Amino acid sequence: MDAPQKKPYKSHWDRVRAFLREYFNLDDDKASEEEVRANIRKGVEFRGTNLWVLIFAIFIASIGLNVNSTAVIIGAMLVSPLMGPIMGVGLALGVNNFDLMKQSLRSLALATVVGLATSTLYFWASPLSTAQSELLARTTPTIYDVLIALFGGLAGIVAQSRKDRTSTVIPGVAIATALMPPLCTAGFGLAYGNWAFFGGAFYLFFINAVFIALGTFLIVRFLKYKKVAIADPRLEQRAKRYMTAVVVLTLGPSIYLAYGIVQRTIFESNAREYIDRVLTFEGSEVVSAVPTYRGDSCTIEVMLMGRQVPEEAIAVARNQLGAYRLEGTTLVVRQAGADGGAFDSYTLQNVLRSNTEILDEKNRRIEQLQQLTERYLSDTLPTADIARELSLLWGSGSVDRVSLAKVPVFTGEGQAVDTVIYCCITTTGDSPLDAGRREKLIDWLRLRAKRRTVRLVVMPREEEKNYWAE
User: Fold this and answer.
1) Strand, helix or coil for residue 464
2) What does the alpha-carbon distance between residue 402 and residue 387 come to, in Å, rounded to a whole number?
3) C-alpha–C-alpha distance, residues 111 and 7, integer Å
4) Which three-class secondary structure state does DSSP give residue 70?
5) Can you tell me whether residue 31 is helix, strand or coil?
6) Kind of pairing, strands 330-335 and 416-427?
7) Per 3-state DSSP, what percentage of the chain is helix, strand, and coil (rounded to 5)?
8) How far, in Å, CA of 73 to CA of 175, rounded?
9) For residue range 272-294, what is the model confidence (pLDDT) as tens digits?
10) Do the beta carbons of residue 460 and residue 430 sit within 8 Å?
11) Contact between residue 44 and residue 103 where contact means Cβ atoms under 8 Å apart
């Protein structure tokens, strides 16, 4: 019997739609709607286990931020249960379940307060008060953080709506959207009264929460989950208006901040190109160049050392700022020896700062070398001294040669388990070493070599020759 023939496509558009349905269909492996709702509801509850896990995760993330450890911060993000109430808000909006939305918002508010209190307490008690790079990275959110949160929310709810939820998608979303670090950074700002840190970090946390919820809402509507019947249809419209207002108000500042970052990056790139190509004066060298972006009042401060550059040459360089898209930028040139051959305070500060950084780096390397040297010396056995002392203990002329070595001991699987001191004594006579004297000698070697495990081999000179001959 012939195989059934596929129905021919009427147009190219039908072919495209069939392709999209086949490869982008979310109905395959889709879990039941009741199962998805139950799983999300389970994560909304913030009491007992979830609350304690949140507190522990906050401590882990705060420590990671404090010591600037990316691995520890990632671990905290994987442990954190913060995604639950946020996805609960998105699901509630998608199906008009306002009881669930109230419960999710209460849980999210509780989690936020507990997280802020825990991180503030930790940073207040911590002796490390320096803001490391991992902390600073959470203080200036932009539109890119919005996009990460939105696509993270979309990925998270798609993964939640599958029968198999053992994939790496949800942990990956937790890492990508990074809910914990900004909340802990906001706690750092509270602990030290740094309101700029608190505002920027809490805004990033708010962005993540809003756009993860929005991503959940969009997929829930796309999958056509059954809506809860409500008595007043105007309530749904009001909820939509509130949601739109929150999204727009959250989006606005991030676009402005992203625009500022892009403009700063373009300015700094143009400034570097300008410095490299234009500020090349014969007999003089640029030892410091600091481009500073301030919107319409940008500056490039340059320090020159060497031969004095005339003002006419500097004026020509200033006229070329426009050619490098640096219109409105002020070029400040400081020259060593500009005032009667003496360094001005700015020059001295920059030179001293540069020299201090170089010296600090050299001192750090010297300290590392000293530690390695001390470790090497501490691990070196005083073989010559031990040989002389053994000759005295054994009797004059009885010891021919002494060999000492530290030998690592490994298991059959290649794991190091101990370090053994091997002592080989070659004697001039043939008299054997009795058991009592041997034990005393081993005890003395343990004490002298400062090692617990000692292996002693004693053999006459003639026997040693035969041994090595074999």
Assistant:
1) helix
2) 6
3) 55
4) helix
5) coil
6) unpaired
7) 65, 10, 25
8) 9
9) 888 888 888 888 888 778 888 88
10) yes
11) yes
